[in-house]
């Protein structure tokens, strides 16, 4: 008998080459004064920002631009965007960028419509008023944030990543145009692509997974595994398109299942060592799977190994330029204890999606093997 299936997808999805040009004017359905939220420079340097503003100008749509979202978004980023949105009377936020821009836009949309500090909204459905609507245009092939209920933000006061979770911050529309990711450097393709793979794998192993999410997990894993090496090395639009689609499917998955231990393990690497989020996840993934295989997840890992082997994860990381060992990053044995402590904190929410919790001592064991 099949497990009860709950599947919720409120986002209007547009996927394909040059869809930004054709569908961007539809943002007027969600608001009259859009605020474009983007990072510090890459979207402008790629020419994408100019293309977007040209489209809006031709349609006589009044808009504003906020540039400067940090690669690892913080509470301060969210406050600045919210204050800017209020000053320019924006009523729809257009997030153009990777997960950072999208997560900041989601959080800022909450702040615009609700009083108080962002810290008060970390957790599940913590705010009262509906946020500003979001239109998402991803420029990386990994986060899936364009279709998820999560905004993950670094709270430097506590030194941890925190999550706002609400169906009300899921973007109203997502335009996935492979043209928007064609200028990505190889390292970002590798990191974000592997981030999407982690989403698909972790979602597959979540206790919240169901028959439908597992279908999307399997398809996402296959799309990413079969194309990431070619996408990194050749950067052809056909391979990038496939990664973008795999990332989208993985986003469908984690919107319902959440992530498990891999993301929580990686938090310490991103916060303490400023390692790219996706790269940190990619390093942790095979070691986490090896541990889980011997601690209650034998059947699930066996199912995954019909698609890929754990050893193949080490191989693919090597081929796309991602470290296999923490020692390659200068991390030493004396750092393991702190990483283990941060993993326990980082997995506070993830443990709810797992069969069991993992102790600090067990994390020490895992990180020691990663050296």
Précis, in short:
With 371 residues, this protein is α/β, with parallel strands linked by helices. It is built from 14 helices and nine strands. It has helices at 19-23, 42-45, 48-58, 75-87, 99-113, 186-205, 211-234, 237-257, 261-273, 277-293, 298-304, 310-319, 336-346, 360-370; strands at residues 12-15, 34-39, 64-69, 92-97, 123-124, 134-138, 150-155, 160-165, 173-176.
Write the layout of secondary structure elements.
Layout: E1 12-15, H1 19-23, E2 34-39, H2 42-45, H3 48-58, E3 64-69, H4 75-87, E4 92-97, H5 99-113, E5 123-124, E6 134-138, E7 150-155, E8 160-165, E9 173-176, H6 186-205, H7 211-234, H8 237-257, H9 261-273, H10 277-293, H11 298-304, H12 310-319, H13 336-346, H14 360-370
Parallel strand pairs: 1-9, 2-3, 2-4, 4-6, 5-8, 6-9
Antiparallel strand pairs: 7-8
Describe it for me?
The strands form two sheets. The chain has a six-stranded parallel β-sheet with strand order 1-9-6-4-2-3. The longest helix has 24 residues, at 211-234. It has 14 helices and nine strands. It has helices at residues 19-23, 42-45, 48-58, 75-87, 99-113, 186-205, 211-234, 237-257, 261-273, 277-293, 298-304, 310-319, 336-346, 360-370, and strands at residues 12-15, 34-39, 64-69, 92-97, 123-124, 134-138, 150-155, 160-165, 173-176. By secondary structure, it is of the alpha/beta class. InterPro entries: ADH_Fe/GldA, ADH_Fe_C, ADH_Fe_CS, Alcohol_dehydrogenase_Fe.
How much of the sequence lies in strands comes to: 5-15%
Indicate the CATH architecture of the largest domain.
Up-down Bundle
| Contiguous helical run count | 14
Q: Supply the number of structural domains.
A: 2
* Residues in helices, as a percent range: 40-55%
Identify the strand order in the major beta sheet: 1-9-6-4-2-3
Taking all residues together, what is the mean pLDDT?
95
SSE order, one letter for each helix or strand: EHEHHEHEHEEEEEHHHHHHHHH
Which structural class is indicated by helix and strand composition?
A: alpha/beta
What is the H level of CATH, i.e. the homologous superfamily of the largest domain?
Dehydroquinate synthase-like - alpha domain
The CATH class label of the largest domain is Mainly Alpha
Report low-confidence residues grouped into runs of 5 or more. none
Shape: globular
Note the gap between the termini.
44 Å
CATH topology of the largest domain: Dehydroquinate synthase-like, alpha domain
Radius of gyration: 20 Å
Counted beta strands: 9
Main beta sheet, described? 6 strands, parallel
């Amino acid at each position: 008998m099949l497990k009860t299936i709950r599947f919720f997808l409120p986002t209007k999805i547009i996927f394909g080459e040059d869809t930004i040009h054709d569908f961007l004017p539809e943002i007027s359905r969600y608001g009259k004064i859009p605020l474009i939220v983007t990072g510090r420079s890459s979207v402008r340097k790629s020419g994408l920002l100019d293309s977007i503003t040209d489209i809006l100008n031709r349609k006589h749509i009044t808009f504003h631009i906020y540039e400067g979202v940090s690669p690892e978004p913080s509470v301060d980023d969210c406050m600045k965007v919210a204050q800017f949105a209020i000053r320019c009377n924006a009523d729809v936020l257009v997030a153009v960028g990777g997960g950072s821009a999208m997560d900041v836009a989601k959080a800022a949309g909450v702040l615009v419509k609700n009083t108080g500090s962002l810290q008060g909204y970390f957790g599940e459905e913590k705010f009262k008023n509906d946020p500003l609507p979001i239109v998402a245009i991803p420029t990386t092939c990994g986060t899936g944030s364009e279709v998820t209920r999560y905004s993950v933000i670094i709270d430097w006061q506590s030194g941890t990543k925190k999550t706002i979770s609400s169906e009300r911050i899921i973007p109203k529309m997502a335009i996935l145009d492979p043209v928007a990711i064609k200028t990505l450097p190889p390292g970002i393709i590798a990191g974000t692509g592997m981030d999407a793979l982690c989403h698909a794998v972790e979602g597959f192993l979540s206790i919240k997974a169901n028959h439908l999410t597992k279908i999307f997990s399997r398809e996402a894993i296959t799309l990413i595994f079969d194309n990431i090496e070619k996408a990194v090395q050749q950067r052809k639009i056909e391979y990038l398109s496939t990664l973008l689609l795999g990332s989208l499917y993985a986003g469908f998955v984690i919107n319902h299942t959440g992530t498990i231990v891999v993301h929580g393990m990686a938090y310490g690497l991103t916060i303490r060592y400023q390692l790219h989020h996706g790269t940190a996840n990619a390093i942790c993934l095979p070691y986490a799977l090896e541990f889980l295989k011997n601690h209650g997840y034998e059947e699930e890992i066996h199912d995954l190994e019909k698609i890929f082997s754990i050893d193949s994860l080490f191989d693919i990381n090597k081929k796309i330029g991602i470290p296999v060992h923490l020692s390659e990053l200068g991390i030493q044995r004396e750092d393991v204890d702190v990483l283990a402590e941060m993993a326990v904190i980082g997995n506070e929410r993830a443990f709810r999606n797992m069969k069991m919790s993992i102790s600090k001592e067990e994390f020490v064991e895992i990180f020691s093997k990663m050296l």
